[in-house]
Amino acid sequence: MFGKKKVDPPVVPVRWDTEGGFVVGEVVRPSAFRKKGLVGRRAVRMPVTLDGERYFAAAAFVEQRDPEVRSYELYDATEAEGLLCTVEPASGGRGGERYQVRDQAGQELGVVFRTPAAKRAVQHGWWLRQPGRPDVVARYHWAKGSAREIAGRGADAAVRGAGSLVGSVVDSVLYGEQAASDNHSPARPTKPVTWRADDEVALTAGHTQGIKLYVPQASWLERRLAFALAVLRQE
Predict the structure, then answer these.
(1) Tens digits of residue pLDDT in 195-235
(2) One-character DSSP codes across 29-71
(3) Which of 20, 45, 147, 188 is the residue whose CA sits 20 to 30 A from 80?
(4) 65 and 1 in contact (C-beta within 8 Å)?
(5) What is the 3-state secondary structure (H, E, C) of 159-183?
(6) What is the pTM assigned to this prediction?
(7) Up-side HSE of residue 30: CA atoms within 13 Å toward CB?
């Protein structure tokens, strides 16, 4: 009927291990022209299309254990909120921050690192390590080779290369059909960030509808480890 307000369809949770991109936050539906956005519990969310409109369905609820510490529990949104993983600060390492990610049985899924401030002109602030795989790192395009090789080039190289992020993944990978409209919005998406394991693209991050979207690329990448990186990066 003309003039009748459209009711939003129910946005049911989705499986956390479903392939595709994800976001972290409370937004269920972004606000639009003359349309107020919808929000819910803080969660890892996946884009879904309902009645021709984009929504973000919960996949894993995010609970902070201690407001004074970056310590989190992620719960399955589809199965009575069963624990998926924990994210806890860890000691050790050469500077920076380390966070251990463990499954519900306490087995380590990997570690998320925050790059020490002195190295952030060379690589992105957050990276991860998954057992049995090369480190997953987002470096600037000029920073080739191992961490030791990069460090050996000296501070001058860092200064010359600062400000240029890896951007090898095209918008269509990150934004899908939404890319064209997003690129003409007042707030243009920032350049994508690409995390690589040696020469293989493992994870990318860009923006869709003003929300940071993460897209796992490597089939072997542990999604819960990627969730942890995204949760920590948003703090």
Answers:
(1) 999 999 999 999 877 789 999 999 999 999 999 999 998 86
(2) E--BTTB--EEEEEEEEEEEEETTEEEEEEEEEEEES-TTS--
(3) 20
(4) no
(5) HHHCCCCCCCCCHHHHHHHHHHHHH
(6) 0.76
(7) 16
Q: Is 96 left (phi over 0), alpha (psi -120 to 50) or beta?
A: left
Question: Structure tokens of 224?
Answer: 């819960």
Runs of H (alpha helix) within 6-153: 147-152
11, 57 contact by CB (below 8 A):
yes
pLDDT band at 80 (very low <50, low <70, confident <90, very high): confident
Letter string b/e over residues 182-209, b meaning 16 or more CB atoms within 10 A of that residue's CB: beeeeeebeebbbbbbeeebbbbbbbbb
CA 43 distance to own-chain centroid: 12
**Per-residue pLDDT at 161:** 32
Q: To the nearest whole percent, how much of the chain has pLDDT over 90?
A: 50
CA 211 – CA 189 distance, rounded (Å): 9
Task: With H, G, I as helix, E, B as strand and everything else as coil, classify residue 199.
Answer: coil
HSE on the CB side for 184, CA within 13 Å? 3
DSSP-assigned beta bridge partners for residue 211? 208
Strand order in the sheet with 72-76: 23-29, 38-50, 53-64, 72-76, 83-90, 97-103, 108-114, 126-129, 136-137, 193-197, 200-208, 211-216
Mean pLDDT of the chain: 78
Under a CB-based contact definition with an 8 Å cutoff, are residues 29 and 38 in contact?
Answer: yes
